[in-house]
Amino acid sequence: MAKTSTSTPRSSNVGSSSSSPMVKLAEDHLFTILLLLPVDSLVSFAMTCKRFRSLTTSDTLWESICRREWGSTSVDAFKSSINTSKNQQLPWLRLYKQVSQLDSFSCHKLPDPDSELMLPTPRASHSLNFVSDCLVLFGGGSEGGRDLDDTWVAYIGNDFQRMLKWQKVNSGIPSGRFGHTCVVIGDNLVVFGGINDHGMRQNDTWVGQVVICENLGITLSWRLLDVRSVAPPPRGAHAACCIDKRTMVIHGGIGLYGLRLGDTWILEVPENFCSGTWRELVAHPSPPPRSGHTLTCIEGTGTVLFGGRGLGYDVLHDVWLLQASEDQLKWVQMFYNLQDIPEGVSLPRVGHSATLILGGRLLIYGGEDSQRHRKGDFWVFDASKIPSIKEQSTPSNSMGLQANMWRRLKAKGYKPNCRSFHRACADHSGRRLYVFGGMVDSLLHPAEASELRFDGELFLVKLELETGSVRC
């Protein structure tokens, strides 16, 4: 041992047979250890010797890292959505770097199909979801303050579709509404609340299920969920998301007499969706009352609340995180300074969309400011930079770190109109985002904030990734 240590430099001796016992570990044991390390530590580990460098750059390891940080559902959907031969291995390290360093994407207008086919009418404050490989559009408000009770379905599948065939589903229920929420829980849609064209707020809960039949086409059936005697107060313009396979959370909105709400409610449903149980989550601190905000769940991180319009009619930019701590759900505010973010002055907004995309990040698009000027910018919120709960307890020390969670993205290709109160949803891979409708500037008086028109455009936001010989 002494002879070896004097004749061989210490840095190169790591890979010799007489070096640290760690080098003698079997490859599968080393692999298990590496999967427990953060990415920065993997980079340092790769610099020690050739064997470790080879192991830490293997496609197998980085596919597992992507599964760890993006979720297995996104990775499996991503793999099935690109055309590769059965034996071709994707360059997962390169893909990880591209997604982590994402600074642009492409927009594509989805051309209208044959003019003889029916299309959804222009609307805002509707719902748009991706479930059972289909886009499902329900309700919304239209010209004259009318609500819509129609449901539209378009099959997407795994392929990139430039031509969509919308099919109108005539179910008659739920009743017409706008400002409702609709989330995907498993293979089901769950609708809560909303406002009808008489201004009445509602607090009913509906379950919808899409069925694809070869002969009958696409059907969607709705039924009222039995929640017994306990339900959140009626509201519209609230926010909601699914936080696990059987649980939904809602927050805020506009209640009776136009009062903005700041309460949080949890809906739990059994496996057969025959009934549901609502309970209010009382936590301190908690987000102040608001409407037109967003809730988005990020696997392994928690539920992110962003923006909206507060009690003083001001448009907000605060970020709150709903996390499980000691078997209880807890709200934690993410403190940051707008001046620390390039172009951060434009971040406050209401009526935007916030959608989970590939890589565990939120893509925030559109909305409007306090003067009702509509926005067309795209921002990414990087949840991987969220500090631990212990670090969050000292906001003054984490201000700079949390400002780094924000980055404005560049849009290439088609330039959609600025809009607010549109809806967006991503496919299972999180690589393709579909956006429909909203309120846009008037064609006659585009500078007038009060001159609004409802939009019926559908466009696609696509993350462009290079996978060697495959561009996807």
UniProtKB/TrEMBL annotation:
The protein's UniProt keywords, in alphabetical order, are:
Kelch repeat
Decide whether keyword Kinase is in the record: no
What region holds the F-box domain? Answer: 19-65
Q: Which domain of life is it from?
A: Eukaryota
Record region (Disordered): 1-20
The record ties this protein, via Pfam families, to:
F-box-like, Kelch_KLHDC2_KLHL20_DRC7
Q: Does the keyword Protease apply?
A: no
Q: Which SUPFAM superfamilies match?
A: F-box domain, Galactose oxidase, central domain
Coiled-coil ranges per the record? Answer: none
Protein name, please? F-box domain-containing protein
Instruction: Specify the species.
Output: Salix viminalis
Q: What is the lineage of its organism?
A: Eukaryota, Viridiplantae, Streptophyta, Embryophyta, Tracheophyta
